Amino acid sequence: MHIEKLPRFPLAQLPTPLESLPRLSRELGGPELFIKRDDQTGLALGGNKTRKLEFLVGQALEQGADTLVTAGAAQSNHCRQTAAAAAKAGLKCELILNGRKPELPNGNLLLNQLLGATEHWIERPQRAAKLSELPEQLRAQGRQTYVIPVGGSNGVGATGYVLAMMELAEQLRATQQRVDHIVFGSSSGGTQAGIVLGARVAGFAGQLHGLSIDKDDPEHEEYEIEVAQIANKCASYVGAEARFGRQDIKVAYGYMGEGYGVVGDLEREAIRLMARCEGIILDPVYAGRAFGALVDLIRKGAFKRGETVLFWHTGGTPALFAYAKELA
Ligand SMILES: Cc1ncc(COP(=O)(O)O)c(C=O)c1O
After folding, report:
1. What is the chain's mean pLDDT, rounded?
2. DSSP H or E stretch at residue 24
3. What is the whole-number distance in angstroms between the Cα of residue 14 and the centre of ligand 1?
4. Most buried pick, 75, 161, 204, 213, via CB within 10 A?
5. How far is the CA of 142 from the centre of ligand 1 (A)?
6. What is the mean pLDDT of residues 234-254?
7. Which residues contact 169 (CB under 8 A, 6 or more apart)?
């Protein structure tokens, strides 16, 4: 592996804390729970994209880019963190956002504006076309663009989670703590791809479970193949021998509720439970849904007594304020 030689722009406060959740473990009467606090990565209110952006921005700077272009949903954490990374690196940032532009910017949208990003609003079906047209238009104006895929999920971005998994393995080794299962939200796949490769590299013996945020069973095969492909591209990028197929990517489905970004009882209960037992805030779209799914799996007896489960908090907290009506 030549991971330490890859272009990297420092953005994150690392290592993020590894904490135990004793009150929550008691409350649920299930396995012993731990949390990895990637909501605390430090860049513009934190989250999992910070780790990916270190490598994406590193490559953008190496290629002489002056502008980052990316896309996401209106409350995209990825877009907010990209805007912050651009600001810190002295780059311009162009965001393609799908959905309806609200009258009053809230949550991540407010932060995008404070961070100086330019927004382009489109309907969801136009996203892929806009993501190829806009950089061309900017290049025609003399700008040097670097395009980051939705969620920062490609082989370069996933590199951040290879290192994250190695960081966690080192924390577990130093504290002599065994973890049997690692559980995290999975959506555009880069986090899971990096964790899967990092686990292989670090020799982690436990099980890895992605919890799908925005897909249901019919799409599962396609998604797992996509995650395996990102992991393979990442392995080539970092110079690791490992190769993956669909069978290496474990994802639990069935937690979509009323759809992506729609808060239901699952998320509401999960957010309150974590807040009231441990004083830790989850977001409504990703970590709240993923933790709600974990609570459901615990209640269904998916883990054995005496096992330890680590919930990877991937951030997203600013979106909470755009959901005040649904959560209050
Ligand atoms: C807070 C948060 N958690 C989890 C995820 C899922 O990560 P990935 O897209 O790498 O699967 C995202 C991605 O959008 C996110 O913003």
Report:
1. 97
2. helix 22-28
3. 18
4. 161
5. 32
6. 97
7. 198, 199, 202, 203, 204
